[in-house]
Amino acid sequence: MPRIVFGAGTSHTPVLALAPANWEARSTADRANPALNLSDGRFLSYAELEREVGEVFAPQARLAVYEEKAAGAQRALDRLASDLQDAAVDIVVIIGDDQEELFSAANQPAFAIYCGNELVTNDHYGAEGNPEWMRQVAPGYAMDRCRSFPAAPGLALDVVRGLMDAGVDVSVSSNVVDPAKAGFGHAFGFVIQRLFNGRQIPVLPVLLNTYYPPNVPTSQRCYEIGQALRRSIESAAGNERVAVIASGGLSHFVVDEALDRQVLESLGGDHAILRRIPRCALNSGSSEILNWVMVAGAVGPRPLRWSDYYPIYRTPAGTGVGVGMAVWDMMGT
């Protein structure tokens, strides 16, 4: 039977594909964002956030700090890529959220699995007329042009059958009709481009709606589906070595270090905490923490082999992103 032999999570923020000197472009977007999400469920403009918080993070919002944290984050990504290569996996399950790249308001499933022969990205980041920062990160997201990567239709179909038998009503997508209009996006392209080191590893994409109410699953449900996903993989035909990787997060667009550190600590410890993360803490970009919760369910109660964390503050009022990477200890699998 297939076995999950590798479990990991990584942020996929644009700053990981941008030189630190160009991070200012993202802070400009923060200042213009009228709905910056706080973990208590409120949404504030930057002016409102600044009035409430002040400029306490000004010492962190400097190029020298950016450069230090960027170097650390890239070392962590290199380590994660090396660990993945050492695991010698046959298939990588990527759990990520779609941000109107493949799906849209016309059809937004809560939970979907792609069963096609190839994963095809769209080129929306590399399109003419986009801001320069988007075009710079486009290659790192495999979205500078429409690109094709091998998928894992055999295992995907077995997993869908297993999930349906387990009472998980999963949506299915099996074809990218016109990637220039709708194709896979950055949650999947980043993992492939940054962690695969050029290898053509078949990918089983799991698309979780974290961003778009009203059908965003709870953290409890994401954990339960992760558990069912593991059982479905292990009951499928074949004997592949499988990796499961969460793509996205952590807190953004207002950094919440306490939330991020609690999530990372709980990944290798008390999963009950992960299952109780309230909806109010999982809005906007912070919602991608749900991808990590699902992987935790799939991996099970195992300790982390290692984790790394960099709170990146792009403005004095504390907007930015909590950048995290983690790998579970899968000894004995």
Account of the protein in words:
With about 325 residues, the protein is an alpha/beta fold. It is about 35% helix and about 20% strand. The protein has helices at about 25-30, 45-55, 65-85, 130-135, 155-165, 185-195, 220-235, 255-265, 270-275, 290-300, and strands at about 5-10, 35, 45, 90-95, 110-115, 120, 150, 170-175, 205-210, 240-245, 305-315, 320-330. An eight-stranded mixed β-sheet has the order 8-5-9-4-10-1-12-11, with helices on both faces. Helix 5 crosses helix 7 (about 220-235). The model has no long low-confidence stretch (mean pLDDT about 95).
Topology:
Elements: E1 3-10, H1 24-32, E2 36-37, E3 43-44, H2 46-53, H3 63-86, E4 91-96, E5 111-114, E6 118-120, H4 132-137, E7 148-150, H5 153-165, E8 171-173, H6 186-195, E9 203-208, H7 219-234, E10 241-247, H8 257-267, H9 271-275, H10 289-299, E11 304-313, E12 320-328
Parallel strand pairs: 1-10, 4-9, 4-10, 5-8
Antiparallel strand pairs: 1-12, 2-3, 5-9, 6-7, 11-12
Helix pairs in contact: 5-7, 7-10
From the spread of the alpha carbons, the general shape counts as globular
- Stated plainly, the CATH topology is called Protocatechuate 4,5-dioxygenase, Chain B
Low-confidence stretches: none
Secondary structure class reads: alpha/beta
Q: How much of the polypeptide forms β-strand, as a percent range?
A: 15-25%
Q: Regarding CATH, which class? A: Alpha Beta
Helical residues, percent: 25-40%
The CATH H-level superfamily is LigB-like
Give the C-alpha Rg: 19 Å
Strand tally: 12
For the largest beta sheet, what order do the strands appear in spatially?
A: 8-5-9-4-10-1-12-11
